[in-house]
Amino acid sequence: MQNKDLNILNKFNILYLEDDENLLKHTHDVLIDFVNEIYAVKTSKEALEVLKNRKVDVIISDILLENENGIDFLKNLKEDRNINIPTILTTAHTDTKYLLDAIKLKVENYIIKPINIKELLTTLHDILLPIVQEKELRRNNHVIKTISAITDSKQVDIIKFIINNLDNNNIFSASYSDIMDRINISKPTLIKLFKELAEKHILIKVQHKTYRFDENALDNI
User: Fold this and answer.
1) Which of 62, 118, 122, 200 has the most neighbouring CB atoms within 10 Å?
2) How many CA atoms lie within 13 A of 48 on its CB side?
3) Distance from first CA to last CA of the chain, Å, rounded?
4) 3-state secondary structure of 171
């Protein structure tokens, strides 16, 4: 794990389903130092509430829960609700049936208890790294396409700054002064860029100092 960059985990949210309260708290307290948010719950009902109201990037679920089964929970998500989120299953048992069920559900990994935190972190890294790489590739593509939509080469650094500071919802928040403090550019040039991006519906103002970057608009360039 020494070659794994665990910093990539800090932008992702984890849903952790475990009915053992002590294990739930211990694993939560460890993972919270590495991830953006961890939603720790004891029942599938609580897990569904999280999924309704929060963005979840990876699910970690025990298989044998009190009065229910983690496999059934995942089947319900994938087959009945069409929710496909990368999943790690944990269990104290090595029954082949569970492993086969996990394979059928295309579960990303299967960890035997007691949970080895290094193994868990490595697994999370390996699951999320392709997502990070895809986002980076898409971001670079956005930079190229957006630059092609403008005429002033001096504005390239601003484009990169905007795209590199988008949140998970493609929202950019900053004032002209904030940008000028970071990048040496005149206010007229900055205003001209924002006007051009707005006219092409690439950067849409949603409120004061807040803009939404529309990826779909790039397809029309």
Assistant:
1) 62
2) 14
3) 43
4) strand
Beta carbons within 8 Å of 107's beta carbon, 6+ residues apart: 74, 87, 88, 89
Does residue 96 register a pLDDT over 80? no
Quick one: tokens of 213? 């970057």
Structure-token pair, residue 171:
């929202």
109 pLDDT above the threshold of 70? yes
CB 14 within 8 A of CB 31: yes
Single-letter residue type at 197: L
d(CA 130, CA 125): 9
Q: Where does the pLDDT of residue 95 fall: very low under 50, low under 70, confident under 90, or very high at 90 and above?
A: low
Burial of 71 (0-12, 13-18, 19+ CB in 10 A): buried
- Phi, psi dihedral angles at 23 (to 5 degrees): -65, -40
The first and second tokens of residue 114, run together, are 């007691």
Between 13 and 11, the more confident residue is 13
What pLDDT is recorded for position 157? 79
Tell me the average pLDDT across 165-180. Answer: 90
- Model confidence band, residue 1 (pLDDT cutoffs 50, 70, 90): very low
Task: Measure the CA–CA gap between 78 and 159, rounded to whole angstroms.
Answer: 38
* Longest CA–CA separation in the chain, Å: 68
Where residue 75 falls (left for φ over 0; alpha for ψ -120 to 50; beta otherwise) is alpha
